[in-house]
Amino acid sequence: MGYDKVNLGDVTDQAAEHGFGELQEARFPREDVGTEASGLAHMRVKPGQRQPFAHRHGEAEEVHLILAGSGTMKVDDELIEVGPLDVIRVDPASARAFEAGGEGLEYVVFSPRHGGDAEIVKDFWD
Length: 126
What we know:
Mean pLDDT: 96
Strand content: over 45%
Distance between the termini: 49 Å
Number of domains: 1
Radius of gyration: 14 Å
Oligomer: single chain
Number of strands: 8
CATH architecture: Sandwich
Helix content: under 10%
């Protein structure tokens, strides 16, 4: 077969599974569709909530596409207002995280797949 298909609603919500379900939803369908070189994430940050931590990469550049809602993206020390159809490219080494506005924030992230490349950044919002 030359393709794989999955509905994001059928992909495990990793945020809920790791105790962050009150803040966001996080689905990573890479294994569900069998990608080897591509990464994809579907994120929903709940209204008025912040992601609990940021992350950065050693090699993987990311492209974020805002689907719905609005909020703020923090990249290192810079705050960027975001809304529907905004596209934001982030250098690998820059730490990034989102805070949703009053209606929440939904976005997808595209990146090359580099296993073990992510570093969690705690206390990012302080």
